[in-house]
Fold this sequence. Notes:
Layout: E1 2-7, H1 13-22, E2 27-32, H2 44-60, E3 65-68, H3 71-84, E4 89-90, H4 96-101, E5 107-112, H5 114-118, H6 120-129, E6 135-139, H7 142-148, H8 155-165, E7 173-178, H9 187-193, E8 199-202, H10 204-217, E9 228-233, E10 236-237, H11 241-258
Parallel strand pairs: 1-2, 1-3, 2-9, 3-4, 5-6, 5-7, 7-8
Antiparallel strand pairs: 9-10
Helix pairs in contact: 1-10, 2-3
D-glutamic acid (DGL) is lined by residues 7-8, 11, 37-40, 70-72, 113, 116, 144, 180-182.
Amino acid sequence: MKIGFFDSGIGGLTVLHRAFGALPNEEFLYYADEDNVPYGEKSRAEIMELSDRAAEFLIEKGAKIIVIACNTATSAAVASLRERYSVPFIGMEPAVKPAIENADGKRVLVTATPLTIREEKLRNLIGKYDKYGIVDLLPLPRLVGFAERLEFESDAVRAYLAERLGQFDAAQYGQIVLGCTHFNYFKDLFRDILPPHAKVIDGVNGTIKRLISVMGEKDMFEQGGESRVDYYVSGRDANDGESLKRFEKLHRRLELMETI
Ligand code: DGL
């Protein structure tokens, strides 16, 4: 079964990475819209158009189900994509519910892109679960650019994150939500800057769980197939040696982040 994934860039690899482990017999198509990254600072209409292009491309390549491995594209475009295409779409959302449930009397900080933060989808999610007003929001747009430049450990990225997180009294926070798939590349940095009691969580497992459940309902599992992945950058084939080397490097980085 061909499962399509798309993101504005390399962020969605964090979802693909965990999907490999959970679905060992499937074929994956990954569309990184690197010509148009970042989505988080674009308008809703622009992201709808770009997401539409990505979905159409993946369907043409044979995807039978599509994971929107991007919180920003999900916020802006999941509803219109579901209206337009008959394949199922699995969206992503910041892990607000588990963060509130496990806050342990402390506050929750949701980090995301500016678009995710201003969209109604996140407002509704918070409205539904945040009964006591414990959630605060922090846009971290520059982390996306740092990730795309594979700049994971520089003084500049550390200083940026420390400065942004430093606007909050970390002692008050029990849960920090990574509400953008690009942010997972910096889990070590979040861990380093935040006090040990503040847990860093993401919404990836919720998305994989939903993907497996929809595939089960629709009887979509491949029996005994061989796992493979084809990469595309904004619609161009990216399976040459150089590109694959870069994607492998990113998977290795994510492997490391999984141990944190
Ligand atoms: N990776 C995306 C997300 O999960 C968006 C990054 C961007 O392009 O701004 O929100």
